[in-house]
Amino acid sequence: MKNFLFYLFSFLTIASFASCSSDDVEQANVDMDISASIISIPQQGGESTFTINCSAPWEITSDNDWCSVSPKSHNGGGSVQVTVTVPVNNTGADRENTLYVVSKGNGYVVKVEQSYSLIVDQTAFTAKPEGETIVVKLKTSGGHTITPNVDWIAHAKSTRLTDASESFTISPNVTGSKRTGTVTFSLKGTQFDITIDQEAFNVPAPDPSGMNSDAKTLASKIIIGWNLGNSLEASGGETAWQNPKTTQELIDVVKAAGFNAVRIPCNWYNGYIENTETCKIKDSWLQRVKEVVDYCVGRDMYAIINIHYDGGWLELSPTYDKQVEVNRIQSLLWSQIATYFRDYDEHLLFSGTNEVRIKDVYDNSKVTAENIEVQESYNQTFVNAVRLTGGRNAYRNLIIQSYNTNIDLALTKFTPAVDVVSDRLMLEVHTYDPWDYAGDTKLKYWGKPYKEFGIANYCQEDYFDTLFANLKAKFIDKGLPIILGEYGCNRHSSVNTNMINSRAYYLEYVTRAAKKVGIAPFVWDNGYLNDGQDQFGMIDRRNLSVYDQPAIDGLMRGAKE
Known about the structure:
single chain, alpha/beta, Immunoglobulin-like, TIM Barrel, 3 domains, eight-stranded parallel beta barrel, five-stranded mixed β-sheet, 27 strands
């Protein structure tokens, strides 16, 4: 349509020339010079200028009212600067306008172009002193760059759609004074700066009351621990994995069996948060975990809560592409958990993760430096988040993990997190060796007393003696106690006496070997009581009784002798 109007305009101009006398034609030939034929305005709008040099009067008309010019007319006789003013382009597409400059029937065209690439809805934010996630909403054609100018603003998550959002994790401000940072959004010459202000966070004063035991001392107080497996870590609710709701009566049975500590694997994410941006944990779930913790500490037992398997957002994500987002969630969750449980004394321990690894990769030779570095960053984020909540958490004993809680990788690849308080960290490892016996059902027997029935020629008694001695020399002797957070074996038979006793012997020997060097053992019990693979149960949670007494007896002999 614009081209049609221009051609019509030109045709009428030529026609007017044809009907003029020679004097009129002389008057119509106007000498006009325009400095630009195309003007480009950035998406956020602005001004641009061009000059008209004309001896005769002239006037400017426009196709669209979103583009204004000043002046619109002039009497001629010299060079005049014309200012073109264009507002921000939030139409969702590139746009253009045509300016017609007319003088005595002569027409000239100036095109005004404005791209569409990026719009930021809000350019100023105030972050909470304790840190939070800030979401910047924008409209974009894609491909924009994001540049924070300070390290306490971390780009966490993007959605690459026309209506997009960018998430930023803001660290707690423990500098003692207000601070301001900037994030620059850029695309195709368009730039927006957003500012983030954050007041200083006042960490609650450290409270040493009830926190007398350092990590080594506290580890020595744990006689033997029991795992409340496949309950509070279940996706979909506490009973989703076929175990009944945990009760005080169950914990009483566990204590009566001889255990003085309970590891409580927990799910805090899948189905337990209000939204994925803030990661606000539901109050009802915090209250429920507290009930179970109270069942334990109320009976003078030690309790460990962790972030266990949550569908893989943490446990299956030790890679650079996941690192920022996982650390964002890890920090937000632990800040809430630690704050909620801050007033508990040393009977409550926090454990940052579980078996962080690449899915289905159990060959240590395939574990990369990237995997180790990222997994250990999750440990560091956990420690930092807890310490920043102050109070008794300034002294709480915290448990960090080797990659996949693997003992060999702990001995060769592990670097402890940095802590602001001395001697309050423990290292967690797991073992289910030999897997063919402990985790699978290919082998039915373990240990020298059962050699005649067929046992593996590896991972027998001397293996655990050497393995745990190496852990002692590498870590315990240098001030880093060890938690054997999971170990155990399947129930291979409920009727074959030799298989039952072989299981008891395995549990007794591994427990004794661990205790001998100062490792605090927590046997794995997932509540499943049948014979075969994944049947690690020893306590009957429905009938509130010991189900496998020989196994319990073996554990207690190993722990107490």
